[in-house]
Amino acid sequence: MWSHEDELPPTAAEFLLTVNFGENDQQRMLELAERSEAGTLTAEEEKEFDGYLHVGNLLAVMQSKARFALKT
What we know:
mainly alpha
C-alpha cells in the first residue's frame, strides 16, 4: 500500500478511478446483501460476500489515494 510520501503517477491514478465491479458482480452483491440482511446466506455465500466486501474496501482505499494523488 502507498503512504502519503509515495508518488502515484497520474496515469495510474486515473486508471484506478476507472476500475469498478461489472454489472453481473454488482447484481450478485446486491442479491447477497439482501440475503445477508434476511439471514439466509449459506456458508459458501457468506464467504463470497465477504470476498466482495474486502475487494470493495480495498478498491475504495486505492481510489481515495488516487483522487488525493491527482489533487497534488
